[in-house]
Amino acid sequence: MNSLVGVLMRFRQDHIALAADIEAMFHQVRVKDDDCDALRFLWWPNGNLKVQPKCYQMQVHLFGATSSPSCAAYALKKTAIDNGELFETEIASTVERNFYVDDLLKSVDTEERAVQLATDLREIMKRGGFRLTKWLSNSKVVINEIPNSERAPSVEILKSNTALPTDRALGVIWDVNDDAIKYKVKLEEKPLTRRGITSTVSSIFDPLGLIAPIILKGKIILQDLSKQSIKLGWDDPIPKEKEEEWIKWKSTLPEIENISIPRCFKTKDMKEISDAQLHIFSDGSEIGYGACAYLRLVDTNGKVNCSLILGKSRLAPLKQTTIPRLELSGAVVACKLYEIIRDELEIKIDSVVFWTDSMIVLGYIKNESRRFKTFVANRLSSIHELTSPGQWRYVDTRSNPADIASRGILATENKQIKFWLHGPEFLLKDLYEWPKPKAVSTVDEQDIEIKRVVMINSTTTDSIRDIITYFSNWQVLQRTVAWLIRFKKNCIRRFLKRDDEIKTDSLNADELQEATRYILIHVQQESFLNEIKMIEKQNPVKKDSRLASLNPVMHDGLLRVKGRLNLSLSKCPVIIPNSHHVTLINQVVSRTKWSYRNGTSASIITGKVLDFKRT
Questions:
Q1: Residue spans per domain, the chain
Q2: For residues 124-138, b (16+ Cβ closer than 10 Å) or e, as one string?
Q3: Phi and psi torsions of 175, nearest 5°
Q4: CATH number belonging to the domain at 1-166, selected among 3.90.1690, 2.60.40, 3.30.70, 1.10.150
Q5: CA 151, 156, 160, 161 torsion: positive or negative?
Q6: pLDDT value of position 579
């Protein structure tokens, strides 16, 4: 069965809209003879319960049965498959993609195409035993081409001055005359209890999330009533302060009926589309998190229009969590909206941009060196699966409509509603007027989401030690480790879909320096782990340590002899054990240099000159 959201989105693609209904759809689909026994029922003639009942069985699918929608949808698609060759490709595709159960919603670009489509659809459906009726369109030309008996009951014989009716399209109010999506709010008197509030909040049907922030306000009240501190039963009266808050929100709901959203993504004066962009914003707050997706269309004349496609607002969990985690959850929602749009919308999207006002989230997404805790790691995996880091950009909070999705608004806040429905003003401007990309700094080591790596002194020979002891030549060892580090980074880049950053050329000086540092860190961790732990805790090494007389310090992850008055690095040799394999193979190597980013350099080991301090 097709997605309700997908059918509604495709209904908004083009100027001319069509709606129709299959008459008694379930009753047109026969049940296999072997299965009819499952649909037996007893019938008392004339309702007389004193006589012997008769046993009947249904031979068609009945309304209310769980299996009926899927069986009828299969029969409908089988009709398209069996008869598709007799019609244009679009006819069979419409039958397969634009029905939700028995309701058809379709949009095309011209009235001529709509008339032909309606004719062909009635014919192909007739071949499958279905009658397509109750036709409705925003075009009087199209409606007048449909027989009166096949029109929707709300449609009269149209004259030039006759207003088109308002009807429902899959539960959504479609004002055909204005060609707009609207909402009808019917507020019934419900008791001021959790059960009554739940019923009212759930009564507002909004499958596309176009008024999600308004509904979120009601959900916030309901969540507050569900907190353990209040301990309310489903039918207990709510506290006085919450009663006032609820009455205020409920009193604003009739204003939803004043919201009018153009059905079509294109304005009436737009020509052929030359560029279609998808812009998805996300955000999170202590109240909730959410996302909103906008379709930005540019026609051949340069006219720009921006429309809200999908919105989603979710409550923050009752268990307290950090704002960065909620903002990251909002980014995941943005990716899910993109996945829905990508699979359902039939407009070719030329580019996709994701916007967030969280530099922390951008740092997480663009990270390629830190390992995160499970919560963050799982969500980043979902984000990287659907997007590339280059698609994510920073936007100021004031220009982020998803901030509304994360906090909610009242139906009376017209300025905020307009911002939500049309997106930030910069989307209507040229690219050079958009927010400038910000440099994203690397994730700090002290970030609470970083997964800590605990190093232990193991007596088992590990793989890096095997590599170090295998080679008897320093340059060969250095280059081998450099290649391994590059391989590791290339694997990470490929996993993160950063193929343009993968390196395949010769090793450079920076990579050789990184390899040298990696080897020396391993040597020191293997030999001086206790001293390193003491210094990292800002404690002096023990007096009985063989390094005590050297006054060691940590710099750039390496143990060094502390020079007088903290002189340059060249006066602070790296400490390595006297008898280690790395020390021995360096004794036969000519002078090697270690260059630092600040321009200083320190010799590592030479044959007769010891720039490493041996212990």
A1: 1-166, 264-433, 465-605
A2: bbeebebbbbbbbbb
A3: -80, 100
A4: 3.30.70
A5: negative
A6: 77
CATH class of 264-433: alpha beta
Q: What is the largest CA-CA distance in the chain?
A: 116
CB atoms within 10 A of CB 280: 27
Range with the poorest average pLDDT among 301-310, 407-416, 441-450, 500-509: 441-450
Could you tell me the pTM of the whole model? Answer: 0.71
Written as one letter, the residue type at 399 is: S
Own/partner contacts of 408-411, CB < 8 Å, gap of 24 or more, are: 408/213, 408/214, 408/216, 408/217, 408/220, 408/287, 408/288, 408/313, 409/213, 409/214, 409/217, 410/214, 410/217, 410/249, 410/252, 411/211, 411/214, 411/252, 411/253, 411/254, 411/255, 411/256, 411/259
Nearest CA among 22, 2, 26, 161 for reference residue 93? 2
Backbone conformation region of residue 592, classed left if phi is above 0, alpha if psi is from -120 to 50, else beta = beta
Cα–Cα distances in angstroms (integers) from residue 362 to residues 43, 112, 498, in the given order: 66, 48, 15
pLDDT tens sequence across 166-217: 566 667 889 998 999 999 888 888 889 999 999 999 999 999 999 999 999 9
Round to whole Å and give the CA distance between 403 and 408: 8
Residues in Cβ contact with 236 at an 8 Å cutoff, skipping those fewer than 6 apart:
193, 194
Token pair recorded at residue 454: 């605990």
pLDDT score of 523 more than 60? yes
Range scoring the smallest mean pLDDT among 144-158, 324-338, 424-438 = 144-158
Q: How many CA atoms lie within 13 A of 246 on its CB side?
A: 23
Paired tokens of 252: 């604003």
Listing DSSP states for 141-175 in one string gives HHHHTS-GGGB-TT-----TTPPP-EEEETTEEEE
